[in-house]
Amino acid sequence: MTLRDLIKKHEGLRLKPYHDSTGNLSIGYGRNLKANGISELEAEFMLTEDIHKATLDLWSVLGDDVVWSLSDNRYNAFIDMMFNLGRSRFLTFKKMIAAAKIGDFEEAAEQMLDSKWARQTKSRAIELSEMVRLG
Questions:
Q1: For the chain: N or C, fewer Cβ within 10 A?
Q2: What does the pLDDT average to over 76-85?
Q3: What is the rounded distance in angstroms from the CA atom of residue 92 to the CA atom of residue 17?
């Protein structure tokens, strides 16, 4: 048995944060997040994975024809919003999604701003809505 296999056997894999036997917040194969955190490389890897998931979610919500027609700014704004909200909360923006699907980006931008999300994120929501509005 390799050292890696031995540690995996003893630690077990947990894909969501948990408190270990000493109360430390941990993840994975016993990574103590309080003591060790993550490296910048690990953060970049997780960001890449999360952007990929947000991208797939956007395609499934808006559909191929709509996504292919988006400008880079609109595409990036919607993915940033999906990344921030997650799929289930993004789906609550029914009027924004409907407006985007028919190419009414003025209305889509207004719907972004008329939300609890916009009040919470302030400058992020303003920047993203302008990207959607202006294309």
A1: N
A2: 98
A3: 27
Residue 43: per-residue pLDDT: 96
Domain ranges of the chain: 3-36, 40-134
Distance CA 113, CA 122 (A): 9
* pLDDT at residue 113, as a whole number: 98
Among candidate residues 71, 69, 67, the one with its CA nearest the CA of residue 82: 67
Rounded average pLDDT over 93-118: 98
3-state secondary structure of 36: helix
Please state which CATH number belongs to domain 40-134: 1.10.530.40
pTM of the model: 0.88
**Residue holding tokens 């979610």?**
57
**Full DSSP string of 65-114:** HHHHHS-HHHHHHHHHHHHHH-HHHHTT-HHHHHHHHTT-HHHHHHHHHS
